[in-house]
Design goal:
By secondary structure, this protein is mainly α. It is built from 23 helices and six strands.
Amino acid sequence: MDYETKIFPRTGGYGRYNRVVVVFSWFPDFAVMLNLFSDVFYTSIPEFYHCKPDAQLLPPAFLPSNLSRQGYLNLTIPWVNGSGLSHCELFKYPHNASDLSAKFSRERVSCTVGWEYAHVAGLQSNFVTEWNLVCSDYWKIPLQHICFMTGWIWGYILLGTLCDWLGRRRCFLFSISLSCLLGAAVCLSRSVVAFLLLRLCQGAMLAGVFVSSYIIRLELCDPPHRLMVAMIGGFFAMFAELLLPGLAALCRYWPVLQAVATLPLILLLSYWCCASMFPESPRWLLATAQILRLKRSLQEFSSRNGVCLHDDMYPGETLLSEIDSAYGEDCQAAYYSVLELRRTRVIWKNCLILSFTLFIGTGIQYCFTRNLHSYSSNFYFGYFLRVITGALACIFICLSVNHFGRRGMLLLSAIITGLSSLLLLALTQYLRGGLVLVLSVVGLLFSQALAMLSAFFASEVMPTVVRGGCIGLVLAAGCVGMAASSLMELQNNSGYFLHHVVFASFAVLSVLCIMLLPESKRKPLPDSLKDGEKQRRPALFLSRPDRDDLPLLCARPARSEYDPDNYSCLVSATRRMLTKDKSPYRIAVPTDSPLLSDSETLENGSVREVAS
């Protein structure tokens, strides 16, 4: 049975209860993004820091009290032209030195007693200042981000597949429970290794929370509301990102900020107690043929939407009886995984293309944000500009995609992203600072639109039976693009130019790949692998109206003698007739005796034969 046309409208459609569940599915996005973007504040390097002066490196006869604070720093820390005091070195004086103002050879050594930091963005201490991850230990900062993104990658793949095996609700509850425990454990970490491992595991669980809530809200919507429902979830994520600087300023210390970011996850545990706030998807139950659970779910949705599944006039003709007729009593549940993509062609192609576009959309953002840092070194300038462009990208998608289609707007976003990247790559040294800023902002806006639209597009064209695993693969590719920026920082930005060239080339190549995608605007979600294989691209150009498109031989496929829908209707009608006490039309039997009995009729007939 087709869920979109035969079951969804008869259970209330996108009714009151569906809307309430969709609203509750937005709050996990806020909690997840609060934990995701807090990583920016944890790994922020202070703008000003230097070594602590070491009195052991000075001559014994030197008295620091004779100098001012700045004079003392100038004597103990080397001065680097263009950047001020050295970040990683100290002066070491000979023991026999008497006049420090005279010029003599001084040895430069690494910091011996730690560092002094200015206030980090919004925080007084973070992951960097807690364990002095500067100078020779700087590589641990991008390593932390790579570990965090690795957790998200594995979480998307494994827990996305778990969504297809156990269901959306069970995967959500499993992920939210472990993410709360791991978030609390991160607050108590006392070493760099413990922090890295806990953040890796927490990232995996947060990915499971995000993908399960993202899928459930789309499977409970009708086609006209899917886009707005997905984009409002994006606005919840933007609100969390916008709220983080204020929370960091109030918390002041990174363990407190981590505890505050974990608090919304703990509140989401209430979904475990109240199943109606986050129910199982009836679409997934039907696609996997779990009939008993499906009927209970449909009864709950219909009753909460104010729709009755039973017909008083014809009690045998109900939706539940049609489901029983179509599937039977011995129907076994069938579960699928992403490994089923090996037997498909169209689904695998669509998944690969959308993974590629999301990888480009997230990876190329580093090229644009780096230009913003060169324009202004203020942390909040680049941070809030990225949030504003993300909100504008959501608004752009809301206003354009339902009118011009998913594929067309995805193609436009890829074209503008590629052009902005190519212009910055070729003409940065010839353009003024204002033009570089404008191109960077435009590229950042449309690259975020490309990433968001790729994820939404994937959720619409992937079939229900493997939607969790396929969306997990697509979002995992996006996390690989996010980790690419940390790989550049791990190499001290030595490969930035190659990184920019590769992603600009990929953006141009994605324009050709997007043309192979189908159009999913106002179309029902595919449920089975067979439905997913029908998601083929439309024609690139409309045919001329005066062109004769009739084929020479009109080959019609042979009609099947067995139609499951007609058969279920026949069985329902038969049961209805059998359950009725009286038929609506009955032939009246005369109570009076006939004028002629059977014997008289026979005698009259024999007399007529003799007379003739």
